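Fresh eyes needed here. Kindly weigh in on this sequence plus structure tokens:
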Amino acid sequence: MRMKHFSREESSWMYYDWANSAYSIIITTAVFPLFYKNAAMKAGVSAADSTAYLGYTIAITTFILAMLGPILGTIADYRGMKKKFFAFFFTVGIASTASLVLIPSEQWLLLLILYTLTALGFSGSLVFYDAFLIDITTAERMNNVSARGFGLGYIGSTIPFLISIAIIVLAQTKTLPLSTVIASKLAFLITAVWWGVFSIPLFKHVHQKYYVEREPRIVRSSFKRLGQTLKHIRSYRALFLFLLAYFFYIDGVGTIISMSTAYGSDLGISSTSLLIILFVTQVVAAPFAVLYGRLAEKFTGKKMLYVGIFIYIIVCIYAYFLKTTLDFWILAMLVATSQGGIQALSRSYFAKLVPKRNANEFFGFYNIFGKFASILGPLLVGVTAQVSGNSSSGVFSLILLFIIGLILLKFVPETRTDAADHANDKNVDPSGINLPIMTHNNQDIP
């Protein structure tokens, strides 16, 4: 994927997608869920119950982060604070992911507890990573940069994933003198190392350029600023209407990503087949994420979001009738066409709406809506699966969330980049609300 048309800051920012996507595929989607499901099965936990417990764990994790997001984001708007918060959550994520190696495979409950810490670190770092988008590029380039980041992430994730699959398969066939448990744990270690090494460019070259100058009693001042935002929330109508739509449709996207392997396992698809399917999904998703960015420049980001949501509605319907491994292949390829694009364009669409000096605060709200959505989806799947005794019914229930999100998105106005930039230059956000004085430093901030 050519990077010569991007600045050093843009490329360094995008490489964090390359770095953290190893976690997304190996821990969130593929190896860890299968490792956990196997541990739960050995402990006598039924397939439906273990899937439900995973859903409940994801819900608890996202609730914690959703509560912290706007508060930490408001504090991080102060000069020099954004990278500090990013580094904290990054460190938690790396350390807890590496620590999965130490948990005995039969301790399924301990696995879920440590998984909670890995998810907090991973998702927490993304709050501040996403907010860095306004620091490293212009509004005109955001769709392309954000989508290219997702595309780079899919390509990057395939390398550690392929290595991990190879180790696990070779262990299963006794070609390597390793147990499947040890092979899976090596995958967790590979994830932590990959994530850490390729995050170095961001730490070196990406800096906070838009910020609010520090005030006395920084925490108290942050709560005061957050209160002012909530007080004038009606003035941010377009922004919060988009967040409401995002709340529903991203719920379904995140739930399908995080619970896909558990769902496939319940259908009787072998672990080896699931890993291969997920690998191919990553490969296919990369060019489609970039394609979404390019098409958004031609047809607008909002129209491409419509396309992505519509495809996910088809996914939910098809999942209900899924029976064979071939069906799961078709389902996975449908997801691959849109999962990166819909996430990338949501990020850039929102970044165009927010006032730059308060980007962290507003990305905190972006996190709240996205994470609260991630509570509803897994709970919906978990409860439906337990009540019906059928995981397919749980996935089908997600169609309601996509339909609601699609309807709400229709009422969100198109972003007007030039108007937004002009407003930001005058310390006024696009909705017309006067905001605290912000400093824009065109030099790198140490």
Notes: The CA atoms of residues 251 and 377 lie 6 Å apart. The chain has 18 helices and two strands. The chain has one domain: 10-413. The two ends are 30 Å apart (CA to CA).
